Fold:
Amino acid sequence: MSFDGIKKDAKGRMEKAVAHLQDVLRSVRTSQASGALVENIRVDYYGAATPISQLGAISIPEPRQIAIKPFDPSILQEMQKAILKSDLGINPQSDGKVLRLTLPQLSGEQRTKYAARVKEMCEEGRIAMRNIRRELNKTADQARKDSDLTEDENKKLHDEIQKLLKSFEEQVDGVQEKKVTEIMEV
Structure:
């Protein structure tokens, strides 16, 4: 593999790791309602576990309320059961056409717990990126052994991969700080 190929691979994989982290963090509860809290809850729909986002329209009519209007009203009860089984801890209210989830105010203890969970998730993201660095450094070393890279190119590539890692770790720090701030807002 070439110098540019390894560097491009490193950047692409680290970008995916940050994007995945941001996607996962969307499902962490904050003081505001978010459709991301429920969109991936699976509902038994004709024998298939289907995400709520594919079964109905999710909206936020009020800052602490989520409304779900199923495309097929016959699935309303199954949606309600799936939400009750989830770890949200919210009892959905149904009017026969729409499910409404009113999110209770987060206590200080809950905010601290969610903030700690975000920090753990971000650290897992950093670890994933460090693993990518290790793999690509091994790839660079192998390319050196195969005479695809010179000794100087190998050293420079290791430095470039380290710079990329630092850059993406700073992005993760920013993402973490933003999410913790959202959680701690009253």
